[in-house]
Amino acid sequence: MESIHQSAVEIQAPAAESEFPSAEEAASTAGQSQSGLHCLHGHVYALRRFGSLLFIVLRSRKGLEQIVVDKPELLVLAESLSCETAIRVRGNLMPKPGEQEVSELHACEIELLSTPNSALPVEISREKRMQSLSLNALMEYRPLTLRNEKVRAIFKIEAEFCRAFREFLCGQEFTEIHSPKIVSTGTEGGASLFSIDYFEKKAYLAQSPQFYKQMMVAVYERVFEIGPVYRAEEHNTARHLNEYISMDFEMGFIESEAELMAMQTRLLKHMFVAVEENCAKELALFSAKVPKFEKIPQLKLAEAVEILARKLGWKGEGNDLDPEGERLLFEYIKAETGSELVYLTHYPWKTRPFYAMPEKGSQASHSFDLLYKGLEITTGGQRIHRLEELEKAIFERGMPLESFGDYLQCFRYGMPPHGGLAIGLERIAKQLLDLKNVRQAALFPRDRTRISP
Amino acid sequence: MESIHQSAVEIQAPAAESEFPSAEEAASTAGQSQSGLHCLHGHVYALRRFGSLLFIVLRSRKGLEQIVVDKPELLVLAESLSCETAIRVRGNLMPKPGEQEVSELHACEIELLSTPNSALPVEISREKRMQSLSLNALMEYRPLTLRNEKVRAIFKIEAEFCRAFREFLCGQEFTEIHSPKIVSTGTEGGASLFSIDYFEKKAYLAQSPQFYKQMMVAVYERVFEIGPVYRAEEHNTARHLNEYISMDFEMGFIESEAELMAMQTRLLKHMFVAVEENCAKELALFSAKVPKFEKIPQLKLAEAVEILARKLGWKGEGNDLDPEGERLLFEYIKAETGSELVYLTHYPWKTRPFYAMPEKGSQASHSFDLLYKGLEITTGGQRIHRLEELEKAIFERGMPLESFGDYLQCFRYGMPPHGGLAIGLERIAKQLLDLKNVRQAALFPRDRTRISP
N or C: more exposed end of chain B, with fewer CB within 10 A? Predict the structure, then answer.
């Protein structure tokens, strides 16, 4: 156990005297650990008593840590600590009985930095109480419930997914971009858009970085973005959010959508391995296991529909799967191949956005979804890259060409064959951890009725 | 020079036969390089003729690369290539005359993937033409002008700033978060907010992740976020955007704002070194040099104002610097210390947001700005962490307490001393590269009048 406090403020060598003291000099004496004592700080998560000993379970940036209070003069103070009090503890590091190489801090001083003003409305360190909370209470008290060990773990895992996503794609020579979220037109021609009062104009929140990432393919060939996207959809289900984090990539000079799927398979493998290696504690809290794969099975949508109807008694419609169809298919694929993931390909062009590349001589498109435990986590595909074909597609959908002027501009000047995909961050986390509701995987979810906290 | 094409599609070992072919199998034959020939793809950036040779300057994901066309039967085709045509070239790698260890592709086949439909309205590969473009033209044709070598370099550098920002902070045990951009209230009580029609409700675009990153300090102690922020400000200057990328961090258990400044100094050093090492070509295009420092000088705002008035003949007002004051101060600090960066500290509390920590016994606050070449790129400071003080501050500003209910909730349950800062991505890039206008550092800028492309 190192002294967190010392590592937080690295002491710099003193500089030559100067008219302007540097920030480092000013900081160099702040927060220095006192002579020989180690220092920990954090929030009191729980207290545990064993005979004459008291243990403080402290939540720090490292997670939960345990502090031993065995000095009689500190026991009264320690026992009176209410949960969530912010404290700084100085003491001695001593080996933990029975566990070699592990040391514990034995407190000599406890400094109270900030005490709660009210009793906690939710006992966040008691898992049973947390489990019995309604989704509404979980969200109402979000600034507090996020401090629970398991809830906190969800977003630790999401941070690791993001880190690994970027790491893999940078390794494949993708460039990160930041596209605007304020846009003048929708990617689908106007449906499901939130409108903004933008000075004298009407603007909208971007449904996806789609048009911009495509434009950027001509600049960098391979681009990615992790950012918020907005869907003004009325549905209020366990799998939908009105604002969510989309992990997008787009790449040029592909021959078909198969390259996109192959790239994603390696990307997801990298992301899952990273979470397994770096979030083992967090996964264990959910008894969750990352999927292991070298390949992901794939099926044409029509084949999936046929299997569902013929073998599994599914009663749904033919152009897409409903949640029940997705669930049945997941169980079937899992039983047949062992895989929790499956690519569905060859979606009908009519059910996909206009920019999807149609398959020659069929009604299908070069697009796909990826289902993970029966939930779509990715949509992707090859895009139309020739101006005339794109204009024709917009015309066929009955949309006005002039709405897409900026987008079409790009195609006027040479666009390579390209495609890409988008992974929903909250959805992949929900599925990995078997969360009941995607809202649990959003830090501060925005849904049909909720815009706070 | 490696075969880009082969590396793009890694060929997987064939799997055992299965009912469901994997995406990798489907991809394994796509785009295979033909027998022995190397393959490059990209856009034709420029053509150069030397005697009987023609060179194609190709823009690929690696940047600009040169292809030699020396086969007479290819010359006619190659000479007819218009700029921005997307091509795939197969050929032989041969050593470049006079340069050991460098090889060039000598074309055997040129495949046209997509040709421009119109003549380019801007000759993007001619720097003089680009320089003479108005800002308006640069932005009107953004999908095209971004393909220019220098413009492209700006966002390569920004991507590296972001990568290095995250790398450094992850190393300091910060956790990445994604806070909502749709909010129910502003961080400053309602001014400068874009409003959104959110179903039956009125919502706003977040001016900063301020409240959320503070709430997350109680969860992870140290958090960061890179994301868009929104300012509905009327000013239309060379340094303002209405949507920009904010690089935020917030950390708990600090003793003073000096720790924030010390952390940022090390962070910026890491970011500048990363850009110097990984974007040498891009920097060279601008003859730009990253600042080198171990420390950054700091001045109280009042001291800066006094120096400006007494020594530099500045005529501005006392509570903040105007652009002229910032410029004069930059020149002075540069001359006195050699530093292009300077911290200004002790801003009057009244000119800062209500949550800034006031200094005891003075009118000042524990807050600071960082100026880089005379432009504010960072604002930060310690925050009030006690509920009563925060309520008092809101009251003193004449703002309604009930607007801040969700934010205050967090402070009811124990908040440690904390603080943080935000760096403007476009501004730091603008200053590094000496761009005239911050719009040049935004991929698709949003300003007083522009919401497209």
Answer: N
